[in-house]
């Protein structure tokens, strides 16, 4: 029987995955093992995911970002989903979740696992719903069958909404937006119509056995998360959280890794308390948060409203941030939405790591600032989070190659560029001296995610090429490859 990363860590073994994680995080392998053994970190690493480049999720490591992709009944197919996967990995997703609810679920899931160098997550309840005419017809056996199959296919972690109990449902009656989680609402309907306890809760130990067999990580879903500021930090949310703490301990008893999902809409002043409460209730299990959104007023800009909350959650100790795109609440994200969502969340994650004084995290900021001050435009572009976007905006007004050596941009022009004026003053005779510009990113102690380029996953296990919509992609391409002069 396959032993999980958690079981091996407890046994004192430093696995290949732990060695790779230590390399990517610039940490000691033994420290990685200790964190996994204590349940403070997880390495989602299904034994059947051959293309995976292992990564770690834990509050003592660099803050990670997940990108949700997936089709719906209305839009997208296998090629469209692979294009979104490629965009997600390219723009720096540390994991992806396939939330497909439309046709061809197996084909899309298998393609994502085969072509993803990052961990792939799913919500198996969605497939169970797709197999029946009425969600009330879902059986315990069907749920276990779907979970077992997805585990065999190589899914690294699964959202299991096992913490939504019958006794919690009346607690949602005074909410403004009720139950906003897909999984939570489906299970609430199932319990109401069948007058039975949550089937995922009832079969939880059976699920643990499946997960232990394939080394699948639990992502314990927050089915009663708040869907607006008014519902944040209420009795329903915290009742479910208490159940998730119990389930965390049960899963660990079975040798299965666990992370816990967190709320979606929370006022900024309540975010740190939410993170600290989860860490206490769930014995330090990594917290994986959606946003949270700090205001409800900005449809079309919720990648911004949520990235603000995500940065605060990361600063308070959340281990992974689930991105939100501009399409949130409005429609299914497409490739450009994935790009914008990931940019917002990579910024939030990096800002949290800088605030938490992660080793070397600020070196990237310092190196880019030095390039900016020296008017080294090409280096500034290459160091940017999104090099193509930075170059595009610069070249909209000053497109010529000669402007790549200019000591100004179109914002201030020649006469009013403060950095040019400052440089000239320092070069003249006087008391002002030249500034330091010696940040060496190659020697930085920062984790991979805190050094450019983003999307620098090892794609050695991914097929060399994949054709999507008549266009051939090479998954190993990095952002610097695509933005080279």
Characterize the biggest β-sheet.
8 strands, parallel, barrel
Query: Beta fraction of the residues?
Result: 5-15%
The backbone outline, from C-alpha atoms, is: globular
Which segments are poorly predicted (pLDDT under 50) over 5 or more consecutive residues? 476-485
Mean pLDDT equals 92
What spatial order of strands do you see in the largest sheet?
Answer: 3-4-5-6-7-8-9-10
Structural class: alpha/beta
Task: Give the fraction of residues assigned to helices.
Answer: 40-55%
State the end-to-end CA separation: 51 Å
Q: If you compute it from the alpha carbons, what radius of gyration comes out, rounded to the nearest whole angstrom?
A: 23 Å
Task: Characterize this entry briefly.
Belongs to the ThiC family. The chain is of the alpha/beta class and 485 residues long.
Describe it:
The structure is a single chain. The strands form three sheets. The chain has an eight-stranded parallel barrel, surrounded by six helices. A two-stranded antiparallel ribbon has the order 1-2. Strands 11-12 form a two-stranded antiparallel ribbon. It is an alpha/beta fold and 485 residues long. It is globular, with a radius of gyration of 23 Å. It contains 19 helices and twelve strands. 43% of the residues lie in helices and 9% in strands.
Overview features:
eight-stranded parallel barrel, alpha/beta, 19 helices, two-stranded antiparallel ribbon, EC 4.1.99.17, 485 residues
Lay out the secondary structure.
Layout: H1 5-10, H2 16-25, H3 29-37, E1 41-42, E2 57-58, E3 64-69, H4 78-90, E4 95-98, H5 105-115, E5 120-122, H6 124-130, H7 140-153, E6 157-160, H8 182-194, H9 199-202, H10 204-214, E7 217-220, H11 235-253, E8 258-262, H12 268-281, E9 287-290, H13 302-316, E10 320-322, H14 335-355, H15 363-373, H16 377-383, H17 387-395, H18 418-427, E11 466-468, E12 471-473, H19 479-482
Parallel strand pairs: 3-4, 3-10, 4-5, 5-6, 6-7, 7-8, 8-9, 9-10
Antiparallel strand pairs: 1-2, 11-12
Helix pairs in contact: 2-3, 4-5, 4-14, 6-7, 7-10, 12-13, 13-14, 15-16, 16-17
